[in-house]
Amino acid sequence: MSPSARTVFLGTGGFAVPVLETLALHPAVDLVGVVTSPPRPAGRGGRSRPSPVADWLAQHDTGSTAAGVVLMTPSRLRASESVDAVRDLQPDLVVLADYGQIVPRVLLELPRHGALNLHPSLLPRHRGATPVQSTILAGDREAGTSLMVMDEGLDTGPLIAQRRVPLTGRETASGLEAGLAALSAELLREELAPWLAGERVARPQSEESATLTRSLRREDGRLDPHRPAEELARQVRAYRPWPGSFLETDIGRLVVWSAEALVPVGQPPAEPGTLLAWGDGLGLATSQGVLRLSEVQPAGGRRMSGAELRRGRPGVIGSRMADPEASKAPRR
User: Fold this and answer.
1) How far is CA 286 from CA 31, 224, 248, in A?
2) Measured CA distances, 273 to 111, 124, 229, 311 (Å)
3) Which of the four pLDDT bands, split at 50, 70 and 90, describes residue 331?
């Protein structure tokens, strides 16, 4: 039997944790190092907290699962001292999932079995920072995960294997990410030993069908009623929990946690951007159809159903979304 591959894992977020656990338990792997982001302020108190990956390792470092694993939390992986620290571990393999920093070329070329990445999309579709959100936004009928050999491009390396899963059209980003994390761990568990044994050949991606995602800002959560209701419903699901979706109305900001697209027959019930009664609940008139606001949260308030908000604030009916450009106009 071949000796276990000395492996360094790079990961930070919750998506990376099932992948790390798979590596820690895999018989073909000798996990010697974990590289993750440094602790960051989180929560209302702003207390510094370790990454989910560092937290998992701390919970398992006294048992056989992850005992003796070196933990590194560099603020800059490209720094020479960070590169040297990884090189000193003499890795045969590097595996990355949801890390958050660019990996320098010297580390990509260091391990003899390569540097592998697990990316939660069906590459070459949805390369980049927000593949899960982009899958939902695009209305894709299936999602998936890809195991690839990393190169210096952005998710452009050759593919080893993929796994697919059908979508129901009701997924949120957080729920889909959790499912794809489990699927990624399963993919790695099945494909790693054949890859190390030289039984898999990575194939180049098709550049013709490639799409690129972008990082999200909080302002991206603003709902635009001049878009169709179906697109807005997908946005609400895709941006949950981050950056969230919201309306700026003349009664204040309204966070939308859950929504459903409805396409009524006949003339539009109101001008786009108007909040209206819809059944016993609350709806938003859009350019095509009505967005039923199933769960909302007014500024300074708690989460509640659209019907609850309507009963508590009857004046909400007929109010309109504020013009975002108006708030930017200079005051006289």
Assistant:
1) 53, 8, 14
2) 55, 36, 11, 20
3) very low
Q: Which of 327, 213, 235, 211 is nearest to 284 (CA)?
A: 235
Architecture of domain 218-323: Roll (3.10)
pTM of the model: 0.93
Q: What angle do CA 143, 149, 151 make, to 5 degrees?
A: 110
Q: Measured between alpha carbons, how far is 245 from 247 in angstroms, rounded to an integer?
A: 7
End-to-end CA distance of the chain: 79
SS3 assignment, position 174: helix
Residue 265 banded pLDDT, cuts 50, 70, 90: low
The count of other CB atoms within 10 Å of the CB of residue 115 is: 22
Question: 177: burial class by Cβ within 10 Å (0-12, 13-18, 19+)?
Answer: buried
Are residues 135 and 141 in contact, defined by beta-carbon separation less than 8 angstroms?
no
- In this prediction, residue 325 has a pLDDT band, given cuts at 50, 70 and 90, of low
Are the CB atoms for 320 and 275 separated by under 8 Å? yes
Collapsing DSSP states into helix, strand and coil, what is residue 182?
helix
The CA distance from 269 to 170, in Å, is 26
Q: Are 157 and 148 in contact (CB under 8 A)?
A: yes
Cβ neighbours of residue 165 under 8 Å, at least 6 residues apart?
Answer: 142, 143, 144, 179, 180, 183
CA–CA distances in Å: residue 188 to residues 2, 159, 247: 19, 13, 41
**Mean pLDDT value across residues 106-113:** 98
- pLDDT value at 327 more than 50: no
What's the CATH code, domain 5-196?
3.40.50.170
Domain boundaries of the chain, sorted by first residue: 5-196, 218-323
Short-list 272, 314, 308, 315, CA closest to 293? 308
Residue 105 predicted with pLDDT over 70: yes
